Structure formats: structure tokens, C-alpha cells
Amino acid sequence: MIASQRAAAPSLQDWVSRVVREDIRALSAYHVADAAGLIKLDAMENPYELPADLRSALGMQAAGAPLNRYPDPEARELRELLCRLMQVPQGIDLLLGNGSDEIIQMVALACARPGAVMLGVEPSFAMFPLVAQICGLRFHGVPLAADFSLDADAMLYAIAQQRPAVIFLAYPNNPTGNLFDPTALERVVRASPGLVVIDEAYHPFAQASFMSRLGDYPNLLVMRTLSKLGLAGLRLGMIAGRPEWLAQFHKVRLPYNVNVLTQRVAIEVLKRGDILEEQAARIRSERMRLSVLMQNLNGVQPLPSSANFIMFKIAAAERVFDALKRRGVLIKKLAGSHPALDGCLRVTVGTPAENDAFVSALEASIEEVKGGHA
Ligand SMILES: Cc1ncc(COP(=O)(O)O)c(C=O)c1O
After folding, report:
1. Atom of ligand 1 nearest to the CA of 124
2. Which residue owns the Cα nearest ligand 1 atom 7?
3. Could you tell me the distance, in angstroms and rounded to a whole number, from the CA of residue 229 to the centre of ligand 1?
4. Ligand 1 pocket, mutate which of 101, 167, 311 (most atoms under 8 A from CB)
5. Radius of gyration (C-alpha) of the chain in whole angstroms
6. For all residues of the chain together, what is the average pLDDT?
7. Of all protein residues, whose CA lies closest to atom 12 belonging to ligand 1?
8. Any residues with CB less than 8 A from the CB of 276 and at least 6 apart, and which?
9. Which domains does the chain have, with CATH numbers?
10. CA distance 257 to 98
11. Is 70 helix (H, G, I), strand (E, B) or coil?
12. pLDDT in tens, 303-347
């Protein structure tokens, strides 16, 4: 066959268009900012490292791990330890995931019957609508009240209209940092025809939980993660709920989703759980100090927070964000991501030195932006 007879090869872009789902092509991938060389206060990580003796013990665990074998698919030892430490009530089981992000995906996949709806609030954690979309659920977001509290009446109305298969509510909420009124949440759980997942990712800093209420509501589940407690790199999340629900989620869970190193390291660190608890306590007290420092800056309005981050309102938020970055501090720009977040930025609580550096850089950035020489 001579070259001119050959059908013109499609461009790779056309090929991608023919093969990949249209709605996936329309999405933007979850963006993670490059923090190289910056003070990293953008991702709600614990800024403290583990003590050297524990790190050595983890090295021994890694060295002794049977990497030639698949991990325990049920992660029994780790699950039992977690159930005890998290005071998971009798009759309630625990399912583990590669971070709680994976658990959101498992729940969504299991619930994605044709036409199924995931309900949430706005603004909240970006992965809820993103995972809904990927898994084929329609996401319906109910606006929070002007003070970012839960609008219980609006929620109940949306539940009646949408009949959601699953509701995700972060408690405390990200990015606003507040805890919703527990009575309002219970009204939501009672009115819901499907599942309600209370996402307690920031539990170590809030010290409020629905874990002990799991026995009261058959459709309630509580999700947690080790990420914010200090093990973000390990990727371990968990969901507690009735075995009848978890049995279904297990079917969409890929086998061996929690690898052998994660299982071993998590067990070793959790046996010394007091270390992480002590770090969380330091972060909680730093949160208070940081909030006061921010309040003292002209034009900065920090919101009360029950998490390890503080959302704040400020004039010219985008320019202040850029100026902070030029000064070597990376935080999170919320302005532009949702109309309710106009003028908002979010800073993670770091070490005292990091927080001081942030406050100085914020003060200088405000001056710079005011002076117009940004
Ligand atoms: C509310 C909420 N849930 C879940 C997560 C994800 O946590 P993980 O690291 O366990 O996937 C985050 C991370 O920022 C979050 O803010």
C-alpha cells in the first residue's frame, strides 16, 4: 500500500476524545501546589516529625516486612488496634482505605445506582463533588449559611427533593474549620433515606465526634484518617459503620489496598499513640496563639476553627497570597474557588517558628499590597 492510500492517522487528541469519557476530559486533575523551598502551610499536615527512637523502630519494621508477600487483605491486627484506640462501639466494624479519599470513592462506587445523588454542603471538601462525578453520581451541594453554619432547613428540603443515596459532611468542615451543630446533623441523619458519612478528618483538633452515636443510627458512618494526625505520607483512612454496609464497600475495594509497609508502620506508631496526641495538643494551642496574632493584624479576619487550619478573610486576597509566596510562605488560596469564599485564604497551623514567619510575611504582604507595589 502506498502512503497516499493509507487513511490519515487520527491525531492523538482525537484518539483520546474517542476513547475517554467526555465528563472526565472536561475535569481538571486535583492540583497539588509545588512547595519546594517554601514554608508549607497549605495542606493541613502535622509539622512535627516523629522522635528518632521511633523512627529507628519503624526502620526495623520496614526491614523485616515480607515484601515478597501480599499484605493481610483484611489488615486484622491494624483494624483491631484502631477499633480499640478509636473506641469503635460494639457491633460496629471498620474498613480501611488508602487514605480517606479512597474510602469516599468506595462508598460512592457502591452507591452509584443509575440516577443516584450525592449530597453535600458548599463550600466543603473538593473531593466530594469530584469523586461523585468520577463515580457517576450527581452531586448536589446545599449552600452553608452566611456564617458557614449548616442550614438545617435547607438540608432537609434538599434531602426531600433529591432523595440522596449518600450525604458527606465534614465535621469540622474544610475549608471553613467550624463544627456544625450536632443537633442539626442528627436531624439530617434522621431525615436521610440513604447513608450519612460524617467525615471526621480533623477529629484530633476538634475533640468532638459522632463515633459513640453509631449505634443510634443504622445509616450513619464515621470516617477518619491518620493524615492530619501526623501520618499523611502513610495514606491510611478508615470508616466505621454497620457490617451490613461495610460488606458492600468491601466488594468495590481493590484487594490489598493497604500495603504491608503502611500496616506495619501504622501499628508501630499507634502503639506509641501518645506521641501523636501530644503533637495534636501542641497544634491546638498554637492554633489559639496564631489566631490571636492574626486578629491583631489590621484587616485580617480569622474565623474560629476546630481544625488544624484557620480560614481568614482579607482584602485583595489573591494578591496577598502571591505576595506571601514571594516571601517564601505557601498557604491555600480559596478566593476564586467558590463565590462564598471570595476574599478568603486558609493557613495550616505549623510550628511556632513557622507561624511566626507566616504572621511576619502576612504583615509585610498586606503593607506591600496596600502600597500598590505588588
Ligand atoms: C474533610 C477531609 N476529608 C478527607 C481528607 C482526605 O484525607 P486523606 O489524606 O485521608 O485522604 C481531607 C484532606 O484534606 C479533608 O479535608
Report:
1. 1
2. 100
3. 11
4. 101
5. 23
6. 95
7. 201
8. 46, 204, 229, 230, 231, 269
9. 25-44+274-370 (3.90.1150.10), 63-271 (3.40.640.10)
10. 6
11. coil
12. 999 999 999 999 999 999 999 999 999 999 999 999 999 999 999
